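Hi everyone,

Forwarding the result from last night's run.
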Amino acid sequence: MPRKSRASLEVAKPVGIGAYPEPPADLTDFQAGVWVSICKTKPSDWFNADTTPLLVAYVKHYSQSKVLDAEIDAFHPEWLKTPDGLKRYTELTKLRVLVTGKIESLARGMRLSQQARYDQRVAANQNDKHSKKKAPWE
């Protein structure tokens, strides 16, 4: 019986199995947690050296959005009666719109959003199928 080659004895590495990129050291603990949770939603080779800066920007913008959300949520409606209060609220909401738009853009660029994952025709067909179904109580 002939000997088996070294290559035939090696175990093939399953696709998508490997190490996820580590969060950069300059991220906060919260940002590092977001980094890890995003990486875990994709195959291990999804993010590499050329997409890492995009992911860093995404995580930092997401973190900023949480700070803005907390500020806006803590805003008391009676503060809107003063010019300074109205100005502050307006600035906070404008910033939130800008940051949210940047998050959306980065997510699309890294193919994290639902829009990036689905073919437009397939999504439309799924939507049509779902909208034509009757609820059990109807």
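The two ends are 70 Å apart (CA to CA).

Cheers,
N.
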